[in-house]
Amino acid sequence: MKKITILLSVLGIMLITSCEDFLDVKPSNYAASETSITNAADAKVAMNGLMRKMTDVNYYGRNFVIYGDAKGGDFAIRSQGRGLDYYYSFNHSPSSGSGSGFWTQIYHCILQANNLIQNIQSMEDAGNGSTALSEYKGQALTARALMYFDLVRIYGKSYNMDKTSYGVPLVLEPLDASAQPTRASVEEVYTQILKDLSDAAPLLSQSKQNGYINYYANKAIEARVYLFMDNYTAALAAAEEVIAATGMYSLYSNEGWVDSWATPYGSESIFELAIYPAEADLTTGSLGYYLLRLYKVTGASGWFMASDYWITRMSEDLTDIRWGIMDYDESSPTRFGSSLKYVGGASLQGDKSSRSAVNVKVIRLSEMYLIAAEAALGLPVPDKTKAATYLNEIRKRSPALEPATDLTVTVDMIIDEKSKEFFAEGLRYFDMLRLNRSIEYNDEFITPAVVITHRTKIIDRTFYKTILPISQTEIDANPAIADQQNPDYGN
Amino acid sequence: MKQLIFVLLSVLFINAGMAQTRITGTVTASEDGSPIPYAVVLVKGSRGVGTNTDVEGKYSLSNVASDAVLVFSYVGYKTQEVPVAGRTVVNVEMVTDALALDEVIVVAYGTSTKGTFTGAASVVKADAIKDVPALSFENAIGGKIPGLQITTLSGQAGSTSAIRIRGIGSMNATNEPLYVVDGVPVIAGNVSQMGNYTTSNVMSTINPNDIESITVLKDAAASALYGSRAANGVIVITTKQGKAGKPVINFKASVGITPTFATDNYEAASPEQQVELYYENFWNAGKYDGDSDEDASAGALAQLNKRFNKHGYIFTAPDNTVNSLTISGERAGQYFDWEEVLFRTAVYQAYDISVSGGTEASNYYTSFSYTNDLGRSVINYFDRITGRMNFSQKIGQHIEFSTNINVSTSGKEGFNDTRALGNNYFLQSRNLLWGLYWPTDYVTGLPWTTRFGSYAYNPVYYNNEWENSSKTQRVMANETLTVKILPELILRSIFSFDNTQTFDHLYYSALHFSGASVGGSVTENSTKINEIVSSTTLNYNKTFGSVHTVGALIGWEAASNQTDYLMAKGTNLPTSALHTVATAGKLDASSYYWGHTMASMLSRAEYNYDNRYYVSASFRRDGSSKLGPNSRWGNFWSVAGSWRIDRESFMQSVPVISSLRLRASYGVNGTLPTSNYGWRSLTSYASKYMEQPGGGVSTIADANLSWETSYTSNFAVEFGLFDQKLSGSLEYFNRDSKNLLQDVPISTVTGFSSTLQNVGEINNKGIEFELFGQILKSGDFTWTAGITASHVKSTVTKLYGGQNIIWYEPTGGDNRVKFIYKEGESTLAIYGREWAGVENETGKNVWFTNNSNTPDLQVDGRPATYSYSNASEVVLGDVHPKLFGGFNTDLNWKGISLSMNFMYKIGGYTYDAAGKDCNDDGYYWERIMSLDAYENRWTPEHQDAMYPQRIAIDMEDVNQKSSRHMHPADFTRLKSVTLGYTLPADLVRKVKLSGARIYFNGANLWTLAAWKVYDPEVNEYGSRGWEMPLGKTYTFGIEASF
Questions:
Q1: CB contact under 8 A, A53 and B696
Q2: β-strands B805-808, B818-821: how paired?
Q3: Stretch B727-755: mean pLDDT, rounded?
Q4: B993: domain range?
Q5: What percentage of chain B reaches a pLDDT higher than 70?
Q6: B942 Cβ contact list (under 8 Å, min separation 6)
Q7: The whole model's pTM is what?
Q8: Distance from CA of B805 to the nearest CA of A (A)
């Protein structure tokens, strides 16, 4: 009896004394957000997080890259229903096939950038800044600029079509859960992009930063942005600044071009996102698998392959070294429409012995040459010699083709070259919209024939579905944006 | 010496007056003739003269007057007065107490009797569930308790069920009740990490045969003592205790088979019909595109030939229409029966043995069981071994120790029965696997390994290339110390340790499509949940002046719950013979833990006057780690009263009414967030990059997040008529739940799609009715029947900020049903576009616009459109039924018993989430369609059709959340029928048994449903998807006791 009384007393005391401690249970794999970035090492972890989130399937990890080609006329599909074919068939509405993954994922990444920028800013305001911190800030600002640039091109009309139309909501700091932001104009978004880029440039390292953004990545993005604004002078200047960094970057040689796809961080890589096994590796759902021929390996489903138009364009020169990255597709053993860029070429060994965990080369030096070429042609006083010179640096990858001269060089030649060089790298569609070209789809390639009802065979940027709708989910949660739906998407 | 004096005195007495004799006899139970040990035998009117029966039910009393009256009593039995009438042997059959009001029930922190308990509680006894072939008790109590809804999430062996008590009181936090086993809250729900493959219902670690009773606490008065976890009701499970007497050995064996599903489930059209649909689909698309008959037919045939030539079929249509469509080729006329290879007759076996007994000082109950359930699907099994030891020992007069230990291990294999095209065999059998596909290549005879055109893989081949299993081991140990400090003051201290470990194993060979890219993979997950609860209560009970009874209870409780998770994964396996991480070329691992704690103070006071007027009140204060320091403590309380009208003197003049009682209660209890850390804004480190740590903001949280609080009132009348031949109750309840937590969708521009907030209020109110009657009793024949009926109205009453919340059913992560929380609407209000059916002339879908857009046409006098995007979304209907419950009937004649249990549901809708796959308009042309789709589609010959024309032009109509997929939910089902025969006692005694019984049980044998395409017993969200349906189970069993 006495023992029991003692036992109970002990129990009672245990309960009363340590109640609040007993009730403070912290997670073991999360940190409190308020205190998670307090120094440069923390900022580095946050930057890793941002880069990783940009490799998500809904962004550079796959879908955004596919998007830029599936809609651009260079891709064709053999059969419907394999996956993401709604990009190709334009089967979009706010409630189904809205492609809202871009919106959601990119804004999630923007939040990470904003959070990092804000934390570094407050450390700097408190007098605790450092070179390392400001470099991370520069990287975050540049990443934010790139993300807004991608968003505004997916959801907004081309800058040179109607820059006063709706762009995307412009958010520069972490928001409360109750925020219901509305859309800024296309022009406002571009203005912010340029501001972020120029704020960031002086903060960035000018040496190589494999897997991260450096000064030249910033300049390369700037070249792209100015090109999309038809500001050729500035685009040329930015592109040439990158080209001039010869100690840092150089064009692949013709001999080395094919192998560059089996190597991470090649000499052309200005910004390359790393995809490692057990990280953003999408295995059989990876970009590489999406482009492999049906049944080539288990899980390969031949989602997308080259259109007849692209094959024809490439066939101008059967010795074009870029055929080396192409494999035959399911339609015929002689039709080389399947790209091996994301599986490391014919070896299928990727760039680090994995077939699916293969880096995504977001910006390559070749693009700077083609931007420079196009910008030189677009100058108030076109510099055709310069345009031809820059173009030929890339065009020489088709040895049988005559080099361009100041007399023969045209925007079409440059755009065609870009199509050949950047097949499956997600650039084509946006160039076609920017240049207001009509886009023709190789619907006959679908066998047996299928009627595509959501668009006509040939479209141009006046077709309302060339930009995606704001998803119904966003409108449901953010009614303030309902009236800002893209035209003709109903309600 | 004493005896001698006694004898002498006796002799004196005999001589002195009336005849005094020694009386002996046996006390047995009327229901089975078994002896009742320790029954009390008293001589009426003689204070202190009496005895107890011995372990064989025998007693003897000396010196009893020949005209004396003996009083026999025993707990749970009617007290009987038997005149001696000159006999020397008085045998008595005790009859169980039909006045169920005096039945002892287990309630929060103690026991009570039905007649005195002031809260709303229902009890299911062991007998009611013992014959149902159930792995877990939930599966056996459907339809038996008013206000309780049980939904089975899947027909796979070992699946989890969901229980809802009195509607839905929460949005995002749990709607699951609290489970209390032998006085201690325990871990419940799914504990496996392999949600995609198999769920492990942790309740199935308790052998249903060990359960003595299940009490469902429904109102605040009954449950408020469990405070912050009680808003959804409490299920109190009490396991069996040994009864004093000789050891009783019980053996039970049953074998069940499930050869078929309980109902049709999206039965597929025949292969020929599929081919016809396929042709028609493309023929129509060709015509839509302006083709001639020739071209349209050629296009359609090209599609068919492209897909099926390689499987040995050739298609022609000489007159370019479906009428001449002919199938030829090597395999013509033969179709592969996938159902045959994917499903089998399920076999269920269960063996139980228990030994129990006791003396006055101690009692024990031990059991051991083995259950094996091979599910209908060839990759689904469940097996379990359980052992239990319940022991209690009195030490001296004041102290009692009792220990309950339950040990179980179970294994399960299953498949992902969400809408997973690659893994769900049920889906595949009805949507992807054409009879025209074969597991072997007809040219080479080799296994077919590439994907079929419908994207299914050949399961015959791939079944051997992967495996999954989930093993659960649970140890529950419960130590109770009871100290009788004073006769009226009892201290009870319970310490409980509940440890559940689940080991999940998932293997894909390098040949399997899921393992090919990584050279084969094997994953092991270990999840260990430790719940430790310590509670101490002090209970005071005393009657003053014979009419004032006072009870008081105070106590403390602390609970801590921690889950340790460990994952190891290996890829690039050296050989298909070894399925272990250790052999892998590449390793990946993760490990972390999470948990929560709670500290509580509790108290209760009760008073009754003359067993007529009862009042009670309870108060509990809880602090939880799931909430921030500002809001973590909450107070929960209740008050209740009842009036036994039948005990009033004025009722004596109404003999028809044998019992009558009124009850009322009001109280407050709460619900905690599901998430352990929902109030903390967190940074996650799940974004590794280049083999370095990577972090990011992962939640935007509200640090002042608070409890959900429920305010419940309850009124009931309980009655018995004609000497309890007819009894029943009528109950009304009203529950207002406030500060409800919800993952509110927020603008994704914030970087997140939702955040947890206290957003609104819900009201649940309803009526529960229960009636039980003895219809006939004549000689050996008795016939009883009962019915339960419940009506619950569950409404969103307020949304803070007024903004509607759109949400999707969480099952399978597939957004199966779209719902809206809107003030004034149901808590399960289906939201979407209103389908107006099919235009007879054209076979097109038409939609009611429900907006001011210019309509294309009028349907039933309402504006309508051909394009769903011109139609607005509206509230389409309510999932909640108007009425649900069960009815049962029992017939007994001598040893034969026949009992039937039905469950029913009237009103409400089910949502067909699988229809978009197997009954579409031509969008999924590579898939097979249901017979329903085939028979009811529009064709020029069949214009008055339910479904539109099939045409392969990528119409998305079927993929819209719409009323097209809603069907009336009404159904009734014979959940269980049992035919039993108890062998005559004299017969079984000859073979040295004390009892033997054989029985047959049939589960789900008969169903009547308003909508017949799929099983109407749907999940709690009212939706039917591709989960494995229930089967018809036929079980044979024997029971014997020694």
A1: yes
A2: antiparallel
A3: 89
A4: 891-908+970-1000
A5: 95
A6: none
A7: 0.81
A8: 8
Residue B15 binned pLDDT confidence (cut-offs 50, 70, 90):
very low
B750: closest CA of chain A, how far (Å): 6
State how many domains chain A has.
1
* Alpha helices for A90-172 (secondary structure H): 100-125, 131-155
Number of H helices, E strands in chain A: 17, 9
Out of A95, A277, A453, whose CB is closest to B953?
A453
Q: Which runs of consecutive H residues, i.e. helices, occur in A324-437?
A: 365-378, 384-395, 411-421, 428-434
Residue B624, both tokens:
């939880």
Q: Do A15 and B959 touch (CB under 8 A)?
A: no
Contacts of A48 in chain B (CB under 8 A): 687-690, 692-695
Nearest chain A Cα distance for residue B207, angstroms: 32
Q: Provide the chain B residues 536-575 that lie in CB contact (below 8 A) with chain A.
A: 536, 556, 558, 560
Contacts of B400 (CB under 8 A, 6+ apart): B392, B393, B394, B480, B481, B482
Q: Using CB atoms within 10 A of its CB, is residue A8 exposed (0-12), middle (13-18) or buried (19+)? A: middle
Q: Do A93 and B956 touch (CB under 8 A)?
A: yes
Cβ–Cβ pairs < 8 A, chains A and B: 268
Domain shared by B160 and B83, yes or no: no
Q: Which residue of B has its CA nearest to A116?
A: B696
Domain end, chosen from B183, B212, B241, is at B241
Please answer yes or no on whether A177 and B680 come within 8 Å at the CB atom: no
B959 contact residues in A (CB cutoff 8 A):
96
- CB of B389 closer than 8 Å to CB of B408: no
Nearest to B517 among A26, A299, A477 (CB): A299
The pLDDT, as a whole number, for residue A7 is 56
> Could you tell me the CA-to-CA distances from B266 to A234, B455, B913 in Å, in that order?
63, 19, 11
Q: Which residues of B touch A473 (CB under 8 A)?
A: 745, 748, 753, 806
Backbone angles phi, psi at B51, to 5 degrees: -155, 180
Return the residue of B nearest to A31 by Cα.
Answer: B683
Domains: count for chain B: 3
Domain range holding A374?
Answer: 47-274+362-439+456-484
CA distance B93 to B77: 10
* A3: phi then psi, degrees, rounded to nearest 5: -60, -40
pLDDT value at B578 more than 80: yes
CB of B598 less than 8 A from some CB of A: yes
Cross-strand pairs, B235: B179, B216
Q: Name every chain B residue with its beta carbon within 8 A of the beta carbon of A297.
A: 516-517
Distance CA B733, CA B740 (A): 19
Q: What share of chain A is helix, strand, coil (3-state, %, to 5)?
A: 50, 5, 45
For residue B960, the chain A residues in CB contact (below 8 A) are 95-96
Burial class (CB in 10 A: 0-12, 13-18, 19+), B3: exposed
Position B520 in a domain = no
- Residue B118 CA to residue B124 CA, distance in Å, equals 18
Q: What is the mean pLDDT of residues B782-798?
A: 92
| B179 and B105 inside one domain | yes
CA-based angle A157:A159:A163, to the nearest 5? 80
Tokens 């606490």 belong to B217
CATH of the domain at A431: 1.25.40.390
How far apart are the C-alpha atoms of B50 and B64, rounded to whole Å?
10
ipTM higher than the 0.90 cut: yes
pLDDT (0 to 100) of residue B8: 42
Closest in A23, A42, A97 to B625, CB measured:
A23
Which residue of B lies nearest to A53 if distances are taken between CA atoms?
B687
Tell me the CB-side half-sphere exposure of residue B25, using CA atoms within 13 A: 25
Q: Is B696 on the interface with A (CB under 8 A)?
A: yes
Are A104 and B753 an interchain contact pair (Cβ–Cβ within 8 Å)?
Answer: yes
